[in-house]
């Protein structure tokens, strides 16, 4: 563990690196951020980020963070639970709550509970009312290298009152180390997706990907010059007790990333109009539009307001467990 000059929640941010000799990953306590990931035989970082750790308090606040307690957008910044209406921080254009609002878990300095050579566990307490959400909640996020080519995240969150919980890892991936996603292709094991309005809010419809621009059941190119622009939830199997393959991202080099998840959805965001404000990235390029692909396994967006969506409601005295697994496959 390395203390950094940056502070968060009034305490020093720390960096910790885990390695198994083939795969290594570096994390910041700010936001439980996956800052850097390296694979033996590949000369560049595979996740978009920066050695400038202070940038994670600004333009890179979501890059690699564990976002929550309710990832994605909540329409109107409100939701009702057991007859009580709750108001949240409308940090998305004043119209919606995004990733838990301005006090979301990406802004918090997590504690390091366990640190070993090949795994680290971060913990965080969220008092009742934080960001407007009910319940005293405790969260543990374990990142573990479970094989020579695999990183696994297990999130366990508990509450003492009925609430909503829906975490998502928010890493941006670029497998070629270039300034954008040119040369990458994407495959998603989803027959349905959630249409969104121009502000990014889901409409409530569940649409078939067949005969639409959102059919990624077979691998297709993504990045500059391709359509559609992506900031959409793809609907996976509704009963996923164990992580199942969901997404395959492949670079021009042939290196591929296979993402498996226990969750019923995955938000795919290509950063077409985003980026990192020109912050210099690990690979020596400014982090700009199409810098990488955010692959965010999670419950469906706006689930607190959509009774027909898979629920993210958690009852008092219970806990939820979410698993994401990233496996890297090098070309023969």
From TrEMBL:
Transmembrane segments: none annotated. It holds the Pfam family Aldose_epim. Keywords: Carbohydrate metabolism, Isomerase. The keyword Isomerase applies. This is Galactose mutarotase. GO terms for biological process: galactose catabolic process via UDP-galactose, Leloir pathway; glucose metabolic process. Belongs to the aldose epimerase family. It comes from Meridianimarinicoccus aquatilis. GO terms for molecular function: aldose 1-epimerase activity; carbohydrate binding. Gene3D superfamilies: 2.70.98.10. The keyword Oxidoreductase does not apply.
